[in-house]
Known about the structure:
This is Kirre like nephrin family adhesion molecule 3. Pfam families: I-set, Ig_2. The protein is mainly β. It has six helices and 46 strands. The longest helix is centred in the last third of the chain and has 34 residues. It starts with a helix and ends with a strand.
Amino acid sequence: MEISFYCRCAVFTQQPHDLVVVAGQPVTLPCSIPGYHGIVLWVKDGLALGVNRDLSGYPRYAVVGDHDEGEYHLRIQRVELVDDALFECQAIQAAIRSRPARVTVLVPPDDPAITGAPVVSLRAGEPLNLTCHANNAKPAASIIWIRDREVLSGAVYSKTLLRDGKRESAVSTLHIPASSVESGQIITCRASNKAVPSGKEARVTIDIQHLPLVNLSVEPQPILEGNLVKFHCSAKANPPVTQYRWAKGGNIIREVSGDTYEVVVDHSFFTEPVSCEVTNLLGSTNVSRNVDVYFGPHMAAEPQSLQVDQGSDAVFNCAWTGNPSLTIVWMKRGSGVVLSNENVLTLRAVKQEDAGKYVCRAVVPRVGAGEKEVSLTVNGPPTISSTQTQQALHGEKGQIKCFIRSTPPPDRIVSDRTVLESGTSGRYTVETVSTEEGVISTLTMSNIVPADFQTIYNCTAWNSFGSDTEIIRLREQESLHLAVIIGVAVGAFVAFIVLMGTLGAFCCTRAQRNLKGVVSTKSDIRVEIVHKDHNAARETEEHAAIKQLMVSELCVGHRPVCGHSSTSCEQRYSILPVTQHGPTSRSYFPKWAQSPFQVKFHVYFYNQNRLW
């Protein structure tokens, strides 16, 4: 009877219903049977959890509510995945049960993980592949990639159901080409499901590693030979630089180890590049550069002196280096004619006159110049270039010199006066001396006799190419005593002319000052002609003629004076002979003298008691 009472009166006013709950959160399943005081049983997936409020086997579970009001609510603390089940509330004595209630437990994914995070390193030029894992989620997490607030597409997504049959693990792989990857970029992996709609994120920083990027500079500019310059090797490297190494022309400079190299440059830097090698963990980068050094000419290929046969070609080769570009000039020493502006000078069919010194000159504008001299020797017949008339003193030792230019040297040199090549024969001795310019053959005669001045001397030289002959005459040389006398006579004559000119100018000036009021008489002017000659028989006749000529000259030269009186000019002048002792000179003849004898004259002008 009692059971039927429970059956007729027990009714659920609250029943559990389906719930979706995130793992870790509490949940309460309601169950209310007012007026029922019998046994209440909670069932999970068909298994009883306990009677009434005794759920000692499930520490997170508890039956809560007012018992007197018939409240048997099931409260679960910190829901777990095991709580994902069907729950029923049963009234045993009343034989009633609630409708089943599905508790769905949502499990957020574990924190996403990017393989290689937090920094993913790759070498420059390589594509980027990123993998993000979002594990143990219910339902499986969705994964997106974000860079600079932009969702990246193209990721490959997959998920795997775990053994518990409820949770899943998700994997997303992102491929980024090398051209789209930059070092320092941050890429985000975001995993989300219903448990965490806002998602969970993981970030990775892209680190692009590369060999050192090197720039080699040099200061100051422009660079002049002999200046101090600084080479700077700037490098960007990831990982960082571990070593610098310098070289010049391939030779390691061991005394320099940093990123700067200071040196005084010379012309070799123009052809021997400076290199800087920078190393990091990935490897090394080597950069080299030729230095644009301004320098004057430096010989690159030195020309050689030549000896060629007459009629052959002579080819000289001369090479210079310089910076800026240089100009080459070939000239023959002593000539201003430019023969070539090329490295090679070619002389076609050379003659003996082409022999000599040639200069290869190089000029670098505004920097410097240099030159190299070479010799051209032309093989040909001898050439004799001696003075054709030579002098000697009678009774003394005399010499005749014969100068011979000959390449190759002469085989024979002969004077046909004695047909003597060398040594001594009678009064004659022949000596041959070689010099840089040629060969001097000297014929020495021990005692010059008059016949030697009448002889023709023949100097002949031979070599393998031919011969040459020179005719030389010997002339008597005046003695030193006679030369001194002649020199003194010439000097005295010049002094006399100067004195006479000065005296004449002075006298004319004084005469004109005293013309007024002065009357000249026969005794006013005195002319002396001094002459000495050993031929007394001719003196009277010639002396009279000369006196007459002198009077005529004086009359013509002094017309104003003579014209002062009616007396004739010839009557106013007297010619007084004066004897002069000593030798007469041959160096002066008056223009009016008709015979080769010498005269000297002195003209004195007298005016009363005054000498003009």
